Amino acid sequence: MDAWERAIAFMRTVDERSAESVVPFRWGRALINQRLNRVPDLNFLIADRVEDAGASALNGEAERIQGAVGLQYRRVNVDDRAAAERFSAGFRTLGYTPERFVIMAHRRRPDHEVDTATVKEVDWELMRPAREREIASQPWGADPRVVQQLLAKHQLTAQGTRTRYFAALLEGNVISSCELRSEGDTAQVETVETLPEFRQRGLSRAVVSAALHAAAGYAFVFLVTDAEDWPQHYYRRLGFEPVGIESRFLRITDS
Q1: d(CA 119, CA 176)
Q2: Terminal CA-CA length for the chain
């Protein structure tokens, strides 16, 4: 497998462990978690056998499977690089928003080293208040049910996959943090967050650097970041290089 395939395989393994059910369909499988039904990252179709598929056909499967369990959105991940580009216009026509995420593999040393002595490995209970505040600050965090389900999603993921938390603290409270998920010879840096009033102080670099030190024994280390946002350039300075795109398509329904 190349680096893109390794990253996708790792993420899908993590995703499937958080599913209550996995529903096969012609072009892949759908993950369903009705208990956490407001979290698209736990409820989506994975299309990875798409030779004779198209946006309309995949939307039909999303309607059939996700509609049957009453989800208020349709979400399709196309885990085929060429097909994702081909299907993009069709999904837009059907009312989906394409979401593109850069998969970046750690390939070299950072542009400069930082002191990570102040970064601590912490547990979820210490992490939770800062994570809750960050989620609540996002546009989707206006609904407290969404906030609580997203917090539950983080806990569920950590139950299925080894997850370590690295944080910078102030007076015993987390102000910047990230996760390190790992299995076998692969590790993923995930959920890099710094509370707004503490940004631009190098804290994110410190916590990610601490996670990278902890991941030194893994053959493959990667992260995923929004293709339309600035952090990808920041992660390049930490030694990450783009290896491909993860393509998701999301449509909010009227129901």
Answers
A1: 9
A2: 40
Has this prediction a pTM greater than 0.85?
yes
201 alpha-carbon distance from chain centroid:
24
Question: Which segments of the chain does DSSP mark as H helices, in order?
Answer: 3-17, 55-68, 81-93, 124-136, 144-160, 203-214, 231-237
The residue among 84, 100, 90, 42 whose CA lies nearest residue 227 is 100
Q: Which domains does the chain have, with CATH numbers?
A: 3-101+248-252 (no CATH), 119-243 (3.40.630.30)
Q: Which pLDDT tens digit goes with each residue over 73-122?
A: 999 999 999 999 999 999 999 999 999 999 999 999 999 889 899 999 99
Q: What angle do CA 209, 240, 242 make, to 5 degrees?
A: 155
Concatenated DSSP letters of 148-201: HHHHHHHHHHHHHSEEEEEEEEETTEEEEEEEEEEETTEEEEEEEEE-GGG-SS
Instruction: Determine contact, residues 56/89, Cβ cutoff 8 Å.
Output: no
Kindly give, in sequence order, each residue whose CB lies less than 8 Å from that of residue 107, ignoring residues fewer than 6 positions away. 239, 240, 241
Residue 255 pLDDT greater than 70, yes or no = no
Tens digits of residue pLDDT in 159-191: 999 999 999 999 999 999 999 999 999 999 999
Taking residues 39-55, report their average pLDDT.
96
- For residue 147, the model assigns a pLDDT of 97
Question: What CA–CA distance (Å, rounded) separates 141 from 80?
Answer: 31
